[in-house]
Amino acid sequence: MYETGPPNGLTTSTTDQAVSGVEDVPDISANWYLHIIEFANSTPDFVHPLAMLFTDGSLFVMAAVLAWAGWRARRLPARDMALALLAPFGMIAAYLVNDTIKGFFEVGRPCRLLSDVNTIAACDPPGDWSFPSNHSAVAGATALAIVFAWRKLGIPALLVGISTAASRVFVGAHFPHDVVVGFLVGASVVLVVMLLGAPPATRAVEKLRKHPRTGKLLTAGARPEHGQADSSPEPPTRPVEPPTEPIDPPTQPMTFRGTTERHRGPRSHSTR
Fold this sequence. Notes:
The protein is mainly α. The chain has one domain: Up-down Bundle (Vanadium-containing Chloroperoxidase, domain 1). The protein is 60% helix and 0% strand. The protein has nine helices and no strands. Helix 2 packs antiparallel against helix 3, helix 3 runs antiparallel to helix 7 and helix 6 runs antiparallel to helix 7. It is elongated and about 105 Å long. It starts with 26 loop residues before the first helix and ends with a helix. Keywords: Cell membrane, Hydrolase, Membrane, Transmembrane, Transmembrane helix. It comes from Actinopolyspora xinjiangensis.
């Protein structure tokens, strides 16, 4: 697991010396790396496996949150569902773009460019380049995808993504500038994918939701679109038919004289 030195009592002999002249690596980044490695080696032994678990496991946790956001979007408008579906494509595109940049620069890993350095992570084989960090690119891409797909979890996702990128320096796998550039590359690629892909993806989701087969998969009592009325049919009401024949009002006033006399008759008779 370690490049040099025993697992217990790790030491670094070059942290107190200024590092300069490392090919393709800024001096300030190389010096920060050595100080961070010195701090990592000074932590208790149980921290080291936890750091390795976090640097890899955090990506799976964020991916699981993103999958949950996609399932949750089935009850949301089509645009929210479209952003959740675009997230995996943005992550894949971010990795491919960053890996292409890495192959172009071909910068070696810190454990191979610096001597007498003990790292928590095992030193990667030759040809596995360092700049920019693929881990950090995927972390930045996933964190920003969660911002689009589930805004309430955006800030926690960004904090986890930044911590994941920083952990790559802590375990000794990358220089600081590797993770900064990698994180920005991943986030930028996802931003472009989301902004450009949202309109056509939204239209596609709207069409698929109307299909009898795919509609069950992409919707689960989805809310009506913002600004649109509910399209569910109203229950039929029985129309009120107008009268077929007109009703003429009476031309003579109605009198009740006879009825009045019948009521008055017994009274006059009784008085007599």
